[in-house]
Amino acid sequence: MLSATKIRAQQYDFPTQKASEGRAAIHDYPAMLHYLLVDDLLASFSKKEGIVYDPFCGSGVTIVQALKSQKRVIGTDINPLALLIAETRTLNVIPEKVELVLKKFKKSIHIAPADVPPVTNIEYWFKPDVIEHLGKIRALLLKHDDLPYSKFFKTVFSQTVRSVSNNRKGEFKRFRIDKDKLAFYNPNVWETFEQTALKYSQILSIPLPFREFQLFKHDLRQSLPFSEKVDLVITSPPYGDSKTTVAYGQFSSFSMEWLRGLNPYGDEDLKLDNKMLGGNKKQCQLPPSKSLEQTLNKIKDKKRSDEVKNFFSDLFISCANIVDKLSDSPTVCFVVGNRTVSGIIILMDEIIKEFFEYFGLKHFRTFIRKINNKRMPSLNSPTNLKGDTSPTMSDEYIVIMKD
Ligand SMILES: C[S@@+](CC[C@H](N)C(=O)[O-])C[C@H]1O[C@@H](n2cnc3c(N)ncnc32)[C@H](O)[C@@H]1O
């Protein structure tokens, strides 16, 4: 049953508007926030001179929408690819200048020697001709690292790597195209790069009016790398560890390997998933949440219950670090999903609420929306057995806490 503070909010369903529109269409990213929801939260809770913060900023939907509404904004994320995408989405670009660079690249691409970095199982994931062409574009990016819009072109390159790889399209995990289809698969690397650059330059040609932001590559389990106090937090944390939910590291790995040495936010590898919340096994205490305790007691599989505890222990530490940076009268909005583990629903909205109550904040409202637009796996494997799937997370919970 819904309580007076837990409200089904149809106005947040946005059935006809995709989450990946406008600047949010630049580069794929899993589980993006809906920009219209962020707009509404900004309009309802931001303060005139206040700072907005997204601790798990991912591809930067909160960052861009905050700048659109002329708010100063800070973002942190552990994934360097996410930060490159987020920064690119804030750029103001003149399409004619992009076209000039493309012309320059096109002239020298044939004579450019390919620079092919170490990429795991490269010949399994990329065709020989694709490897050669990606290597040539990478060589040009390395040579012209001082180029205007160099971050823009690196993001275009990253999306191109995804598009021309042998991975199935629309898939966030590593799944190769079927063998019979692969035989006829011949992506044109230069054309993909050029078309992606032209498309993104059009999107970024409508200027953002305000660009005061800071982005940090940071593990939220460590104290935060900035000194400002923040008035409004808008974020969506991972819903569980990477292994059983969204594998952000695996999603980013093709791009990160091809971008090695080029991303100003640093390099990473497949091990990134182990560094995400809940990613490494450890002895940990039960965080202070009745709902979490009850949920863990219901999960009979000890291994799965330990995984859930491990994840929430990391999330609790992250919340403590966030609370440390809150101003005197803040609002905290956490957008979460309640997934299923071994047939038991993890009431993440209740657990988050109890975490912040522990830190002295008060529950204001929880809104519930349908997430038909959000790019999330619609099925997960609650028992972790291959093929054993059940519907998950068609609802998203917007938990709002105030001081
Ligand atoms: C649901 S996604 C955020 C998506 C984002 N709201 C957007 O619109 O693109 C969760 C993010 O948490 C990040 N993350 C996971 N573990 C982290 C950690 N320990 N510290 C900081 N960020 C972490 C992931 O890299 C991922 O980008």
The first-to-last residue Cα distance is 26 Å
Low-confidence runs: 373-392
Q: Strand percentage, roughly?
A: 5-15%
| C-alpha geometry | globular
Largest sheet properties? 8 strands, mixed
Organism: Dissulfurispira thermophila
Family: Belongs to the N(4)/N(6)-methyltransferase family. N(4) subfamily.
InterPro entries: DNA_methylase_N4/N6 (IPR002941), MeTrfase_CN4_CS (IPR017985), SAM-dependent_MTases_sf (IPR029063)
Enzyme class: transferase
Structure description:
With 403 residues, this protein is an alpha/beta fold. It has 2 domains: 6-90 and 211-241 and 277-402, Vaccinia Virus protein VP39 (Rossmann fold, 3-Layer(aba) Sandwich), CATH 3.40.50.150; 95-203, no CATH class. It has 14 helices and 12 strands. The strands form 3 sheets. Strands 1-9-12-6-5-2-3-4 form an 8-stranded mixed sheet, with helices on both faces. A two-stranded antiparallel sheet has the order 7-8. Strand 7 (340-341) and strand 8 form a beta hairpin. Helix 3 packs across helix 7. The chain starts with 5 loop residues before the first strand and ends with a strand. S-adenosylmethionine (SAM) is lined by residues 29, 31-33, 56, 58-59, 61, 76-79, 82, 219-221, 236-238, 248, 276-277.
Write the layout of secondary structure elements.
Elements: E1 6-8, H1 35-45, E2 51-54, H2 61-68, E3 72-77, H3 80-89, H4 95-109, H5 122-125, H6 128-143, H7 150-164, H8 179-182, H9 189-203, E4 213-217, E5 230-235, H10 248-258, H11 272-275, H12 290-298, H13 302-323, E6 326-336, E7 340-341, E8 344-345, H14 348-358, E9 362-370, E10 379-380, E11 390-391, E12 395-402
Parallel strand pairs: 1-9, 2-3, 2-5, 3-4, 5-6
Antiparallel strand pairs: 6-12, 7-8, 9-12, 10-11
